[in-house]
Design brief:
Blueprint: H1 2-23, H2 26-54, H3 63-88, H4 103-138
Helix pairs in contact: 2-3, 3-4
């Protein structure tokens, strides 16, 4: 089964490569992949690691929050990387069906949802720990 899945994956990549090569977009794809690599390795990964180093460790106060903040940064960074092309091209395109949505607003709503979810999760963990401690003190 593993060999069949590997063969199908390699076959799919070969078909995709031939299709991209045949359209003349290979240079654009290579440029996009290089940009994605630079964005991830040059900005996103150092930012997440730097914030993770600044937050207290597992033994210090706020330790469990470290993972929540790092996870939220990774998700927000990935959302930003996906939304970056429409965010960098403001204004109406020549063809209105190309980018029909309000991408800056939708990106902001998505990042705010990730932030709210991370804040809720970071607040629930200490609250649950406090609740368990209060319950154990009662008995």
């Amino acid at each position: 089964m593993r060999y069949a899945a590997g063969f199908l994956g390699v076959f799919g990549m070969a078909v995709g490569l031939l299709l991209v090569w045949g359209t003349g977009w290979a240079g654009h794809v290579v440029l996009w992949l290089a940009g994605a690599l630079l964005l991830h390795d040059g900005l996103l990964a150092p930012l997440v690691c730097g914030v993770g180093l600044l937050l207290p460790g597992p033994t210090g106060r706020g330790g469990p929050v470290r993972g929540v903040v790092r996870g939220a940064l990774i998700v927000a960074g990935a959302l930003t990387a996906v939304a970056l092309p429409p965010l960098l091209r403001p204004g109406a395109p020549a063809n209105p069906s190309v980018l029909p949505l309000d991408y800056p607003r939708d990106w902001l709503v998505s990042v705010l949802a990730v932030t709210a979810g991370a804040a809720a999760l970071a607040g629930v963990r200490p609250l649950a720990r406090w609740w368990r401690g209060a319950q154990s003190r009662r008995s």
